Amino acid sequence: MNQTIYPDRARVDARDKVRGVTRFAADMPMQRVAHAMTVPSRIVRGRLAAVDIDAARAVDGVLAVLTWRDFKGVKSAGYLMGGGFGFQSHQPMLSDRLVHRGEPIALVVAETLEIAIEAAALVEASYEEEQFAALLGDTRAEVLAPQPGHDMGDAQAVLASATFRVDAEYLSPAQFQNPMEMIATVAEWRDGTLTIHEGTQNSGALKFGMAAALGLDPARVRVESAYLGGGFGQKNSLQGQTVLAARAAMLLGRPVKLVMPRAQLFHTASFRPASRHRIRLGADADGRIVAASYDADMQNSRPDTFRASFSEITARLYAIPNYTSTARLVRTDVQSPGYMRAPFEHPAAFAFESAVDELAYAAGRDPLAFRLANDAETDPVTGHPFSSRFLAECLRDGAERFGWSRRDPAPGSMRAADGTLIGWGVAAGAYKAAMAPAIARLRVRADGTTRISLSGHEMGQGIRTAIFAAVTDGLAIDPARVEIVIGDPDAAPQHVTAGSWGTASSVPVVRRAVQAMQARFEEFRDGRPIRGTIHEMLARWRRPYIEVESRLQAPGQPDTVFDRLQRGLPAAAGPEYEPFVSFSYIAHFVEVRVEPTTRHVRVPRIVSVVDCGRIVSPRTAESQVRGGVVWGIGAALRETAEIDPRFGGVLNNDFAEYVVPVNADIGAIEVGFIDRPDPLLNEAGVKGLGEVAMVGVAAAIGNAIFHATGRRLRELPIRVEHLF
Ligand code: MOS
Fold first, then answer.
1. Which of 526, 582, 623, 704 could hold 590 in an S-S bridge, CB 3.0 to 4.6 Å?
2. Whether 308 contacts 275, CB under 8 Å
């Protein structure tokens, strides 16, 4: 087990970030770069009858105006997580078929961005329009047959005879990731090689996907993605604009830069789909949850399928012996939804943890004590043990830090001197502890430098800092001259960085590489005395470098997963491993203050305590939790995509109207870690953190609002007008 206690340290890229030195894809300096702009479709669904590009082409400085006819022969690689995880097919501009508002119908390439924007506005099109459904509840939406879910015991019968019952429906809106770095591609075509600069969580899939789409040998496609300005799942799959920029670069013989404007991203990039959750819970007279049923509906696109898995965590949060779940996909005419931080777990925890709170009140129990009394010791779904589970410790530690024992349980009972209503709420969260296979190459050189290459993408979460902690732990190298090469499929095979498996996949394989390096060095040293670093010894013994390679897969995975890794296909495992089940856990304690006249809700403080195994990078781990909690506050009280059912577009498609929390909305966020290494998942004892951080925040806020006001609000975001 990992005995290392990792010290707090600054991010390895902190200095570069604050000085603006870090280069993102669209920042790459490049000779003769041409600028592209997309022309969005003005209808939702139908056929593109004609496109008039003459006026656009006549603008001085326009190099080309491409329409679908210029993309003949291009194939959709299938883009969800690089085409390997479920199936998504729709690539804009491959035909005259239009399936959602705003999809590109033409691409203008010009000498400057300003010219490209001006010319794009001059492209005219005519359409053959068809009827469409914009909303989850639209009568023209197509509801698919339910996906099979969990089925343990006899939930319906036990629910019918339970002493205390809750039956309620919860709604979660469509949301957009809105990473600060907008989705952008710079494509270069030189000497028969295509180079793609793109902020992606999935550079391996991008390499092989572009090769498949454009009919190129993968050896002729290079991808660079050293840094992303935020990903949140929106960049974990292939993007519709990449092939457009690549094709334009190939046709023009010049580098082409395409930065998608934020307003267009609301209509082209993936998002968190709207969902509806009906939860039924039953408890016995002793306050034990005896049965649950969970039926969900989730918005989807018309051509594709993005599968739901809301119940994966809710079936495990408590020891509920009778549990059943279904999920139905609802086809609407939007771009295909995809993964957004805690894609299912955030809305599922809002619904389920609100319902559990309702049940605690119905049974006359304290919401914290009720949760502790229903904790699960083994996995209710498989019957297998958990690799580690400190949810109860998270709840107890959080309660202690928060001062939960001073809570008066009666709703509306706690008030400030000025009459402000005070509410205290709690909720739990979980997220699968997943792992992906990885190969790491470590080279220590006599010249004082060290280079480690492996799979990973730095979206700002701090993976470089975690890798640095692992590579410098116990290795006599110069820490100031360590080069970490990630996001480059030609340096090491790249797996998608998502699903909170980044640290759990990279740190253990780096520890292995360090051990291999130590062993190789000892062998080479052959009993000679050591004076100084490995670099110094290599220099003295006139050897330019030592290189080792290590590999690691998830528990129980066959060696064939490395073939998938080498081809850029998803190969992660979890939460079920033979013979254990692995999750990270969190408990959130929230104070809200509701102004009695305006009903304005403030969140002055939150305590969040996490069990994510061993903490490798304390600084970035704490930041991850703060970021997740801030997002949870936004999801609870601010964020929603306002869809116009008549036009099928997002009305609030910018940061002025798509409201996210600002500094003034955020109070104190206290973060605690259990920091106990998981003994089974990997040698580093690391589980995952990125997504669990926001799971349950919205429920804890809703529960606190109930405690403050006596109003149970079941639709996100919770708005002032709901509180009257
Ligand atoms: Mo993340 S939403 O799994 O890229």
1. 704
2. yes
